[in-house]
Amino acid sequence: MSSSSSVPAAFSPQQPLSFNFFTGANESWFEYPETAASGNYTIPSLLDKPKLGIAVSGGGFRAATLGLGWLRALHMLNVTSKARYLTSNSGGSWLNAAFSFQDSVPLDSFLGPYLPPQQLSQQQLQQADSGNGSFAGVIANAGILIPGAADAVEDAFRSLKPGQQLGIGAWSNAIGRAFLAPYNLNSDASTITAAGTVGPIHQAAANLSAQQQLQVYTYRPTTGPAGSSSSSSRPFPIMMGSIMLPDTPLGFYAIEFSPLYIGSPAFFNDTTPPIGGGFVDPIGFNTPPPDPKPTLPSPILQAFAATAANATGFNNGSLRTNSSAPAANVAAGNGSNSSSSSNSSASSGGRQLLRLQPLNVTAQPTYVVPLKSLVGISSSFITNMFQPGGEITRQLTGTEALNYWNQITFEGATLAFADGGSADNLAITPLLRRRVPKIVVCVAASANISAATSPADWAGYQWDISALFGAAPPTHPSYNENNTIVGIPIDLFNRKLQVFPTQGYDELFYAVRNSTAAGGPSFHMATYDVLTNSFQAIFGGWQVEVLWVVNAQQTKWEQALPQDTAAALASSRDSGKKNSGVVGNLVKGVRETILQVAGGGDALDAEGFPFISTGKANYSPGLCPAKYPVVALLQE
């Protein structure tokens, strides 16, 4: 492995590139390419797996560290090898990208060993997982916020012209150095792809690499020699980001980054330009709108025309379509115990439409967007504090300006891309779009549920959970002075994210709080009716079983710690007991990082443990192994 920060410049092709795109992701007949019934993009090994997905939430270093513990436990239980999907946002994407694309070390070494609490002496904490490719060691060595922020400020005050692209942003470079360089995944001149497809998708990327001096980072469903003890299967990775349009009611629009394609599923024609409705090959991301515009096959155009005339269709992508969601759920048979109603629309005529894809187009990228930029975009969490507008504030918040065009009308512009937390911080919506009926959601909660005075109190702090039930409260002390969430009115934010019936939220709150009070892992398993949500391109009328695993203090685990570690943990945690919500934790984390960088030292710095502030970006070596074994109790 190499940790060198010396990397080539971003790849800007001299000639247009030919690549594929998919249209109709906002339609009920659409099947996602990796598991489609037919087509070159299908990965047969995924079809052999159960319809199970794992979602790792955002939350900065807290999410990356907790996610490592969760993935280790699931790996030890042989769950990761059985899952079809691993989705993530923000800090969870630091882990997801390295886990899914690296082939430098075996997965067992990457994930590291589980240490029971009895073994976590302070000496052991300082020594644990410091090498051998362990991601815990990478986290402990990262410390990215201060240099990343300093570089972003410098970039922001360059001489800028309207719409000018500065290339790979300072934040993405910092993320790449911290989390990808240790696994040789940090090249500026790179793209991503997937092996194991029916057609020669991976070979096409390899050919491009040979011709264009472009590195290709490949997701391989199976790692290691087949049949060997080091062989292991990995789920298909999807990282969340958002297209940021500050002058629109929704502000942030979901985009997905995967090895096979990149795009925004839901289609919105009330934005300028219209966005969404499909995907492009990774090398086609950051291209201007194709000229001339592609001609869609007549059957697809006819299908679009039919749903555009239907109030429950997603072609409008407007408030009106989402307001009709309850009616749409009834029409689709909401409450059914299977997903047959939602799948039926993708059969017969729908399958014929899918056989007409992908479609091909030729365009010239300003530069090919590397993996580091995708991960940097997914984790530019400062945008959760406000909606940046101008070029300078975009740079200050870690956003990147890239070319984008939708796959319905082919209109586009240079747009800002930012953290996916404002679109779906838990990264559960990609799984619901794919109708995955069993999901493990790993929530790196920032608020202590034991300190909440009521379900509504915790809902205000953890709006990333409550809004999925339409239950973010109308007012809350953690909201900003305009009583909005990331600049979006509360009612609209609830409508934008709601995918489950509202009554499920209180049940989740009390179940998680009760399991926390019992001293063990904080979790809840429940079955929900999936609601249609046009903002998310999610079709309801089926049921999903969700296992929620939530970050919380686990007293039984702490009671088993060696005396010196327990005392150090209690002392360090005292000043961080008050809930302050997502934004408050971010501000507090920046302050903590500055103080720790200035003061140095290897002490167990665990203020608020396990609710380490989202913005804290300089973990002491002892904090990483101390933090993730908490959630490794999932295996017990």
TrEMBL record:
Q: Signal peptide location in the record?
A: none
Q: Which domain of life is it from?
A: Eukaryota
Tell me which InterPro entries the record gives. Acyl_Trfase/lysoPLipase
- Region (Disordered) residue ranges read 325-349
Recorded protein name is: PLA2c domain-containing protein
Q: What is the native source organism of this protein?
A: Tetradesmus obliquus
